[in-house]
Design brief:
single chain, 328 residues, mainly beta, Tachylectin-2, Chain A, 2 helices, 22 strands, binds beta-D-mannopyranose, Glyco_hydro_beta-prop_sf, Mannoside_phosphorylase, glycosidase
């Protein structure tokens, strides 16, 4: 392996070898969907969810839309990364905001361990969608702090360490609806409350699968070649939006500089559980688990706004592809 991954060894992460007849860089779990739509109490659907290593297993924050179709996030635990116990109720955040902060809804969580705690970012309903922020030390008590941005914004994704002494976040300014545009921006903060020095990272376009809008997916992975960012891209077909995902390499110290970017998607909705559900044709990644010693990567992605799926890859293969495509 020439790419060095800066991160922990995770020998117990979920892993399935690439099937012999498969030449794809990213391949799907044989057990998909690993989380079914009604696997938690009163759930209409469970999708676009985030997991992290925790104690001798894994913990996660799950998007569970209930049978009233209210969007909220719940906690879950797993020993093996496949079988999840998800709470009956949404996370009850202890507010650490200046005064009580209304949260009309919560969806599409990401979880990022930084220094001493697990930060959670999500799309928070506050007079329209914006980026909500909270944290937990132990997955028992959860604290909510101020929203990172003004409405409207989605896909707020933290970097796993401070960069140049500041917390760093990618986000995607949007509108109140099903936004028909969207580029990825970078922002930094001294205290996780006040965000500024906003920089443009990359725009929709480039190649057709990502022509309408793009948004950061899982927490970026630090490697010797740069930050590996997996991101979703949307194409507008005569049948509506199609969500696929690809990857980019961002400069380590100036992550708004894109060193390489997917021309081809890594995974697009093709299997039944990605094409059929509450919103057809959606593959939406929100988390990865990565073993720094082997370069194995497990990608958790929502399917058709209904279920949670797993796919696998080697970090090295993704970076090789990015480099190859940037020379074409
Ligand atoms: C986006 C978000 C995602 C969802 C996608 C497709 O705007 O709502 O949660 O997966 O649309 O419906």
């Amino acid at each position: 392996m020439d790419v060095k991954i800066i991160g922990q060894s995770l020998p117990n992460m979920p892993w399935e070898e690439r099937p012999k007849d498969c030449k794809d860089i990213v391949w799907r779990s044989k057990h998909n969907p690993i989380i079914k739509r009604n696997q938690a109490k009163d759930a209409n659907s469970i999708f676009n969810s985030a997991v992290v290593p925790f104690k001798d297993g894994f913990a996660g924050v799950f998007r569970v839309d209930d049978r009233a179709r209210r969007m909220n996030i719940r906690r879950g635990f797993s020993k093996d990364g496949y079988n999840w116990e998800i709470d009956d109720e949404p996370i009850d955040f202890i507010q650490q905001t200046r005064d009580p902060l209304v949260s009309e809804y919560k969806y599409d969580p990401r979880v990022t361990f930084i220094e001493d705690r697990y930060y959670i970012t999500w799309c928070n309903g506050y007079h329209g969608p914006t980026i909500g922020v909270g944290y937990t030390f132990d997955f028992e008590k959860f604290y909510q702090i101020e929203n990172a941005f003004l409405p409207y914004n989605r896909n707020g994704v933290l970097f796993p360490r401070k960069i140049n002494g500041k917390y760093a976040m990618l986000s995607r300014p949007s509108d109140t609806g099903h936004t028909a545009f969207g580029d990825i921006f970078y922002s930094e903060s001294p205290d996780m409350i006040h965000w500024g020095c906003h920089r443009h990272v990359m725009s929709a376009g480039y190649t057709p699968w990502q022509s309408l809008k793009i948004g950061a997916g899982p927490t970026p992975i630090e490697t010797s070649e740069g930050w590996l960012l997996i991101y979703h891209g949307v194409l507008l077909s005569c049948n509506g939006y199609v969500y696929s995902f690809g990857a980019a390499l961002l400069d380590l110290e100036k992550p708004w500089i894109v060193k390489a970017r997917s021309k081809s998607y890594l995974l697009s909705p093709q299997e039944y559980y990605e094409c059929v559900g509450d919103v057809p044709n959606v593959a939406f990644p929100c988390a990865t688990l990565c073993d720094a010693s082997t370069g194995r990567l497990a990608i958790y992605y929502g399917g058709a706004d209904t279920v949670v799926n797993l796919a696998f890859a080697y970090v090295q293969d993704i970076i090789d592809l990015l480099k190859r495509e940037s020379q074409e």
